[in-house]
Hints:
Layout: E1 6-13, E2 19-27, E3 30-33, H1 40-54, H2 68-90, E4 93-99, E5 104-110, E6 115-121, E7 125-135, E8 138-147, E9 152-154, H3 162-176
Antiparallel strand pairs: 1-2, 2-3, 4-5, 5-6, 7-8, 8-9
Amino acid sequence: xFDLHEAYILTKTGSRGGKTYQVVIVTPFGYFTxxxxxxxxxNQEVIFKINDFINSEKTSVLVQQNQRHYxxxxxxxxxxxxxxxxxxxxxxxxxxxFYKSIDKVFIERKSLRVNQVIEHPLENILRFDIQEKQFRYxxxxxxxxxxxxxxxxxxxxxxxDESSIRYTVSRxxxxxxx
Length: 178
């Protein structure tokens, strides 16, 4: 930039009262702003440096600003989101199939990590229960097959809302005519 006139700090107040500070450099060609989201103290140092340059006989000045800390937080946020997406992508999908013709129930759990098939005769089923689990301020539920030896097999290992579990259990009861 040529023929610098002055530099000052422009203070902007957001809708929630937060303040941001930005260095503005005045030239005959217009106003040029440097990076925002830099602290007031850092901007003050830049202004002193620029105004000192304007009032001196120096031929050049070097001012550097970066937003690496914002880039760091953005990268960290993206990594967390990728980790959450990877967890959901690798969580198992459960398919529970009841076959009256061959008198069997198959519970198939597939994921990127595990493929598992659980098979039992329908005659070994005593009943269907609904397990509940307290999570912070709410309760979540899952359907469980109780076998004759009182072994419990969750139809789906994940817990969910009560109404969908009750609906699922009622549909199984009506299909098997328990």
